[in-house]
Design goal:
Layout (H helix, E strand, L loop, with lengths): L1 H29 L3 E6 L6 E6 L18 E5 L5 E7 L3 E2 L5 E2 L22 E5 L7 E6 L8 E6 L8 E3 L12 E4 L7 E5 L2 H5 L2 H4 L14 H9 L15 E3 L3 E6 L31 E2 L3 E3 L2 E3 L2 E2 L1 H23 L4
Parallel strand pairs: 1-14, 3-15
Antiparallel strand pairs: 1-3, 2-4, 4-7, 5-6, 7-8, 8-13, 9-10, 9-14, 11-12, 15-18, 16-17
Helix pairs in contact: 1-5
InterPro entries: Osmotin/thaumatin-like_sf, Thaumatin, Thaumatin_CS
Keywords: Disulfide bond, Membrane, Transmembrane, Transmembrane helix
Protein name: Thaumatin-like protein 1
Length: about 325
C-alpha cells in the first residue's frame, strides 16, 4: 500500500513538472518575436528602443544603421515598448553626442531614455490579451521619418501599418522643425505635432480634454491622418490605428519607398502599391542581433531568407516539444 502511495505521489509530482514545462514552452514559443529593422533611407540612421515599465530591455537600446543595412533584434516574451530612429547624429568614441531628431539624452545607447519629439514611433505589446500582439505606428509625438511595420505570421491575415509618405514635405510652417543636413540637405527635418508645437490641452488631450468625448481630431491631426490613414494622428485615434497579430517577426522599415517595390496591405501612405511581401531593389545582407562589445555595435552578416527560416524552424521545434511533453500528462 505504501509503495502504491509513493508511486501515486511521484506520478502527481511528475505531472506537475510536465504541466510547468508545457506552460513554459507555450509562453516562450508564442510570446516572443524578432524585430528586423531596415534602413532604406539614402542616409545613416540610428535606431533606438525603449522598453515599457517592468519589461526586460532589449539587447540594444541604440545603434548605427547605414543606408541599405538591416539589423535583427530578438525580443523577450511579453515585451512591450517602442522603436524609432534618430537622424543627424554625431557621437564620440564613448557614445556621447547628439542627434538632430528623436534624440534620447545625447547617447548612442538610449538606456531607458525615450525619444525627444518629434519622432515617428512603432509601439507594440507582444503576447498581450488572448496571447495577441497589439501594435501601431504613432505620430502623436510628431514625425521625423517614414516608417512601416510588416508582421510575418504563420497564420497570415495580419495588417501592415505605418506611413510611407514624407510628411515633412507638406508639414505646415508652424509645425516645421528646420535643421542642418540631418540626412538630407537642410530644410525641414521633422514635423511637430500640434501638442508639441503649441502645448494646448485641446491638442494634447489633457486637462478637460483628457477623454475621447472632448478630445477630437484637429485641423493639424487631420493632416497627418489624410497622409497616413493607419497611423495614430492624436491620442484617441484608436479605432483605425491599433492592430493585432500573433507574429514571429516584425519587419520595421524606415523610408520604405526608397528601393521597395511592394508592401503588404493598402492604406499606409501614398506611393505604395498593394501586395503580399517585401521586395528590395538590391539584395542586402542582415546585421544579425546587434549587441554591444567594448561600447561598439558588432554582428555578423546573415541573409533575410535564412533568418526567416530559422524563426519558423524554431517555432516548429517549440510546438513539437510541447506536443511531446503533453503526452505524459495523460
Amino acid at each position: 500500500m505504501r509503495l502504491i502511495n509513493m508511486l501515486t505521489i511521484s506520478s502527481f509530482k511528475f505531472a506537475i513538472h510536465v504541466i510547468f514545462l508545457v506552460s513554459f514552452f507555450l509562453i516562450s514559443c508564442s510570446s516572443a518575436a524578432l524585430f528586423t529593422i531596415t534602413n532604406n533611407c539614402p542616409f545613416t540612421i540610428w535606431p533606438a528602443t525603449l522598453s515599457g515599465a517592468g519589461t526586460t530591455p532589449l539587447p540594444t537600446t541604440g545603434f548605427q544603421l547605414n543606408s541599405g543595412q538591416s539589423a535583427q533584434i530578438p525580443t523577450t516574451p511579453s515585451w512591450s515598448g517602442r522603436v524609432w530612429a534618430r537622424t543627424g547624429c554625431t557621437f564620440d568614441a564613448s557614445g556621447v553626442g547628439k542627434c538632430e531628431t528623436a534624440d534620447c539624452g545625447g547617447k548612442m545607447e538610449c538606456g531607458g531614455m525615450g525619444a525627444t519629439p518629434p519622432a515617428s514611433l512603432f509601439e507594440i505589446t507582444i503576447g498581450g490579451y488572448n496571447n495577441l500582439d497589439y501594435y501601431d505606428v504613432s505620430f502623436v509625438d510628431g514625425y521625423n521619418l517614414p516608417i512601416i511595420a510588416v508582421p510575418r505570421s504563420t497564420s497570415g491575415g495580419c495588417n501592415a501599418t505605418g506611413c510611407a509618405s514624407d510628411i515633412n514635405i507638406g508639414c505646415p510652417k508652424e509645425l516645421q522643425v528646420v535643421g542642418g543636413d540631418g540626412g538630407g540637405v537642410g530644410g525641414v527635418i521633422a514635423c511637430n505635432s500640434a501638442c508639441g508645437a503649441f502645448g494646448m490641452d485641446q491638442y494634447c488631450c489633457s486637462g478637460q480634454y483628457a477623454n475621447p468625448n472632448t478630445c477630437r481630431p484637429s485641423y493639424y491631426s487631420s493632416i497627418f491622418k489624410r497622409a497616413c490613414p493607419r497611423a495614430y494622428s492624436y491620442a484617441f485615434d484608436d479605432g483605425t490605428s491599433t492592430f493585432t497579430c500573433n507574429a514571429y517577426e516584425y519587419a520595421i522599415i524606415f523610408c520604405p519607398n526608397n528601393g521597395m517595390d511592394q508592401i503588404a496591405g493598402p492604406g499606409i501612405g501614398t506611393g505604395i502599391s498593394t501586395g503580399t511581401g517585401i521586395e528590395t531593389g538590391t539584395e542586402v545582407g542582415t546585421l544579425s542581433a546587434p549587441h554591444t562589445k567594448n561600447d561598439k555595435i558588432r554582428g555578423s552578416i546573415r541573409t533575410n531568407t535564412s533568418s526567416n527560416a530559422i524563426s519558423q524552424v524554431s517555432i516548429s521545434i517549440c510546438l513539437i516539444i510541447v506536443s511531446f511533453a503533453s503526452l505524459y500528462i495523460v
